[in-house]
Amino acid sequence: SLALDIARNAAIRHNVPTAIFSLEMSTQQLVDRMLSAESKVDAWRLRTGALNLEEEFGRITAALDPLSKAPLYIDDQAANNILKIRSVVRRLKHEKKLGLVIIDYLQLMTPVHTKGGDNMVQQITEISHSLKQLAKEFDIPVIALSQLSRAVEQRGGKPRLSDLRDSGSIEQDADVVMFIHRDQNDEGGGKKQNAEILIEKHRNGPTGKIDLFFDGDKSSFLSIDHSAQFGDFNNNPSVF
């Protein structure tokens, strides 16, 4: 959801041509989530069509225009590899002045050089290095989502750099490493709760955390007005 928020805001608010390589979800699923976040209509109600025609349908119609015109390019090919991704990025950079690439997610990419018999660490190391080279070759920020190891579930608490699954090369290659942490004991519960963006590595700046509010019903992260009561959105908090 955070990666989609970043992509949506970059493309709609700032007109930055953005490519999303989704190896897990289909284009339709991604568009549905972005439309829910942009229109502020419950994602389940949007999918099932159980809408309030007077209010929600109007918000969806209003959100469709900027979303359809946004310079967003989605590739949902499964088992994608760096050669195919580089080819698409090269074309979009030349034709559309591509400004942002998002990979969802790194562990689902197919390695090119390592063999099937090689362990997962070797495969992820190759993929991590190749994404670093992609960013440098085309001078484009690349946001690569990654799974965490089960250690963080067993240990509890906030994720650490050592929890990046299958390879320390992700930590080494990345300029910035961020984790999303939601307290399972948060009174907000389930779909609506406080969230922390933990900046655990920043090659050219400080580390720290950013407090946000996660609205699972609308698949989006919102900024928090610390002076307002938790859960009060009368002040229309902005989307992150």
Count all strands and give the number. Answer: 8
CATH-derived architecture of the domain at 2-162: 3-Layer(aba) Sandwich
* Fourth-tier CATH superfamily name of the domain at 2-162: P-loop containing nucleotide triphosphate hydrolases
CATH class of the domain at 2-162: Alpha Beta
- Cα radius of gyration in angstroms: 19 Å
Please outline the major beta sheet: 4 strands, parallel
Low-confidence stretches: 226-240
The termini sit apart by 11 Å
Helicity level: 25-40%
Shape: globular
Mean pLDDT: 84
Helices and strands, in order, run as: HEHHHEHEHEHHEEEE
Strand line-up across the major sheet: 2-1-3-4
Number of helices: 8
Structural class: alpha/beta
CATH topology of the domain at 2-162, anyone?
Answer: Rossmann fold
Please state roughly what percent of the residues sit in beta strands, choosing from under 5%, 5-15%, 15-25%, 25-35%, 35-45% or over 45%: 15-25%
Fold and architecture overview:
37% of the residues lie in helices and 19% in strands. It has 240 residues and is α/β, with parallel strands linked by helices. α2 (27-39) crosses α4 and α5 packs parallel to α6 (120-138). The radius of gyration is 19 Å and the shape is globular. Mean pLDDT is 84; it is low at 226-240.
Topology:
Elements: H1 2-13, E1 18-22, H2 27-39, H3 43-48, H4 56-69, E2 72-75, H5 82-96, E3 100-104, H6 120-138, E4 142-144, H7 151-155, H8 169-173, E5 176-181, E6 192-202, E7 208-215, E8 220-223
Helix pairs in contact: 2-4, 5-6
Short description:
This protein is α/β, with parallel strands linked by helices and 240 residues long. The chain has helices at residues 2-13, 27-39, 43-48, 56-69, 82-96, 120-138, 151-155, 169-173, and strands spanning 18-22, 72-75, 100-104, 142-144, 176-181, 192-202, 208-215, 220-223. It has a 4-stranded parallel β-sheet, sandwiched between helices.
